[in-house]
């Protein structure tokens, strides 16, 4: 099991942030998730503590009171060498449909110019990769997916849009993601996914978790319309497979 030089710092009056090396690697994410489980079972219960893993960090947020940073940080430094590898953890591989029609892929031509790839090649590259969920934010259900093929790496838009449609699939440097609701955004939009990623009315609002993986497959506009209707009436269109880390 890999060990890393972690750093713990205050994160407000009621939280601490445990940081790992600033690299986007599956091994680092697995170590963070292992430590998260270990911390949860060593005094950081759900009634008092929210634990949020993302990319290179684990945030521990006390929802009840202010904390003693020196005491908490010392405890976490002592716990880290004692953690155990998650040998039985089952992640999910989610296969999500995307319509790449020009109506939805409003930045496809620009991405084509930046990468030197045709639109068809962009779609093929985007659907050929399997992406790791490294974090969920800045909106509820917004998935930060790492593992974009190098040929698709493009910078964020110089000027963000004031309105990006729900379900829009975007690219930003080494990441791809799905906008879970209408909102402003600066990613390059290449398609739209008709499957709702976040539903506040459900017991589990976001069905995808950090550590899961996602792959995309291309659908036609007619299939997009059908999937949209099916999702609205509550049909489960998700393709999911077990995916041990």
TrEMBL record:
Q: Which InterPro entries match?
A: CT_C_D, Cyclophilin-like_dom_sf, PxpB
Q: Which organism is it from?
A: Muriicola soli
Under SMART domains, the record lists: AHS1
Q: Which SUPFAM superfamilies match?
A: Cyclophilin-like, PH0987 N-terminal domain-like
What's the source species' lineage? Bacteria, Pseudomonadati, Bacteroidota, Flavobacteriia, Flavobacteriales
Put simply, this protein is called 5-oxoprolinase subunit PxpB
Q: Which NCBIfam families match?
A: 5-oxoprolinase subunit PxpB
Write out the GO MF terms.
Answer: 5-oxoprolinase (ATP-hydrolyzing) activity; ATP binding
Keyword Zinc recorded: no
Q: Which stretches are transmembrane? A: none
Q: Name one Pfam family in it.
A: CT_C_D
The protein's matches in Gene3D superfamilies, at most eight in alphabetical order, are given as: 3.30.1360.40, Cyclophilin-like (2.40.100.10)
Keyword list (alphabetical) reads: ATP-binding, Hydrolase, Nucleotide-binding
Please tell me whether the keyword Acyltransferase is annotated for this protein.
no
Per its UniProt entry, which superkingdom is the organism in?
Bacteria
Give the Enzyme Commission number: 3.5.2.9
Residues forming the Carboxyltransferase domain are 6-208
């Amino acid at each position: 099991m890999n060990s890393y030089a972690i750093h713990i710092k205050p994160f407000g009056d009621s939280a601490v942030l445990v940081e790992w090396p600033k690299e986007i690697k599956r091994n680092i994410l697995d170590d963070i998730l292992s430590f998260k489980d270990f911390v949860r079972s060593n005094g950081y219960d759900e009634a008092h503590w929210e634990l949020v893993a993302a990319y290179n960090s684990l945030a521990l947020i006390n929802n009840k009171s202010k904390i003693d940073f020196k005491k908490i940080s010392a405890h976490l430094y002592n716990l880290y060498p004692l953690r155990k590898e998650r040998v039985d953890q089952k992640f999910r591989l989610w296969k999500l449909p995307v319509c790449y029609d020009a109506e939805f892929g409003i930045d496809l031509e620009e991405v084509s110019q930046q990468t030197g790839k045709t639109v068809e090649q962009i779609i093929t590259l985007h659907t050929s990769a399997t992406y790791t969920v490294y974090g969920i934010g800045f909106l509820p259900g917004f998935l930060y997916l790492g593992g974009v093929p190098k040929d698709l790496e493009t910078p964020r838009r110089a000027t963000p849009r004031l309105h990006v449609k729900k379900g829009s699939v975007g690219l930003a440097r080494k990441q791809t993601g799905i906008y879970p609701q209408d909102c402003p955004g600066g990613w390059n939009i290449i398609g739209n996914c008709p499957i709702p990623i976040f539903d506040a009315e459900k017991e589990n609002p976001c069905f995808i978790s950090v550590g899961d993986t996602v792959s995309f497959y291309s659908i036609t506009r007619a299939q997009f319309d059908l999937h949209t209707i099916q999702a609205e009436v509550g049909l489960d269109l998700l393709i999911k497979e077990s995916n041990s880390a």
